[in-house]
Amino acid sequence: MFWAFLSRLFHIAQxxxxxxxxxxxxxxxxxxxxxxxxxxxxHPRNNNDNHENTKKVLLISFAGSTFLVGGFPRAEFQTxxxxxxxxxxxxxxxxxxxxxSVTFYTKSSSHAQRRSKRFGxxxxxxxxxxxxxxxxAAEGYDKVVAVGSSMxxxxxxxxxxxxxRCDTAVVFNPLVDLVHESxxxxxxxxxxxxxxxxxxxxxxxxEQCLASSxxxxxxxxxxxxxxxxxxxxxxxxxxxxxxxxEKTDRERDDNILDTIGHDTSKHVLARxxxxxxxxxxxxxxxxxxxxxxxxxxxxxxKQ
Length: 303
Description:
It contains 12 helices and 7 strands. α6 packs across α9. It is globular. The model is unreliable at about 65-70 and about 300-303 (pLDDT under 50). By secondary structure, the chain is α/β, with parallel strands linked by helices. α6 links the parallel β4 (about 145-150) and β5. The chain has one domain (about 1-300): Alpha/Beta hydrolase fold, catalytic domain (Rossmann fold), CATH 3.40.50.1820. The longest helix has 24 residues, at about 280-300. The chain has helices spanning about 1-25, 30, 80-90, 110-120, 125-140, 150-160, 185-190, 195-200, 200-215, 230-245, 270-275, 280-300, and strands at about 35-40, 55-60, 90-95, 145-150, 170, 220-225, 255-260. InterPro entries: AB_hydrolase_fold.
């Protein structure tokens, strides 16, 4: 018991140190190397002649942040994504993204920042989008599924329409309006975003959700039913989507987001679902539906 307490205390201190260094813009080499990790899973051994086995899938995980007590920047959804791919019998690559700088994945190299600012195109996410799109193009993936929680969910929804391909996005309790966020840790974390992005984040996310919907992306937003502040954040996104539809004279579509509530008040919803042994079946089901929808599209193309 005593050693478990000390271990937990050390983990919290370590997480707080990482967060402090991030606020001071002091990079840590060990964590910087974990920003972009590609893991190729072994091809599933399946004696059945299953057409799904011939499909090449990319599973992208955007890790959350170190905002919470004991938070520690590390790749997330590692085990569950690998098991979901194995259960579905597909050849998958897993791309694990981590943002030790706590900038909602907007941190770019100095060269990229100077170049984009020079031409007036600074949006913060240019470099991470370029890296992901280059990987998708080089490998020719048939399906791409993005998964993220909290800060990672925010990044996905802010970028989903810019990915070269994204068939399904599964996000948990995204942070949408960081200007009116009342939770101190998240509000302070939001200050890491450039002001023009932070103040326009709901509109940016709404634009990307609408763009991805037109391409047929299934955006699944899981939220905590007993967390009023997370419900408010989801409402911000839904309101921004409706406002953008009205602004562009588009017919209102209430099916842009597939929202799923869960009986909990925990913000770190994915971790809570994992404790309940509900996360793996959830991601497996999302992957199976992605494969099935793609199969239907392939048949329509052939006809």
